[in-house]
Amino acid sequence: MSFKCVIPAAPTLHLDDADSRVTRWDFASGASTGWHEHGWPYVVVMLTDAQMHVHDGEQVTVITRQAGESYARPAGVRHDILNGGDAPMAFIEIELKRLSGVS
User: Fold this and answer.
1) Three-state DSSP state, 54
2) Which end of the chain is more exposed for a tag (fewer CB within 10 A), N or C?
3) pTM for this predicted structure
């Protein structure tokens, strides 16, 4: 179900407390996260421009992202992310363990 890739993406944990987990992900060209599922909703903030390949278990979607762009996804998302570009790709992932319910 995942990409056939021998280069793993490199996670660097910046914060992990009761409310959130913040991880920086660095990808060489062709690197992937490996198949995984998120237990919490999360937000991603791109640090670089990127050609992100997202495998959902059935198909691969190619998404062009720009540095500074962000997106959010719900808990339970199963996928594998691959850097399909020639340049390194990096982003910050913020997993929201506890939501306040305050709007």
Assistant:
1) strand
2) C
3) 0.91
Question: Could you give the CA distance from residue 47 to residue 91 in angstroms, rounded to a whole number?
Answer: 5
71 within 8 A of 80, measured Cβ to Cβ: no
| Terminal CA-CA length for the chain | 38
Strand-pair category, 42-46 with 70-73: antiparallel
CATH of domain 1-64+74-81: 2.60.120.10
Residue identified by tokens 């009761």 is 18
Side-chain-side CA neighbours of residue 57 (13 Å): 6
Distance, in Å, from the CA atom of 87 to the CA atom of 33, rounded to the nearest integer, reads: 16
Q: pLDDT of 26-65, one tens digit each?
A: 999 999 999 999 999 999 999 999 999 999 989 999 999 9
- Is 68:45 a contact under the CB 8 Å cutoff? yes
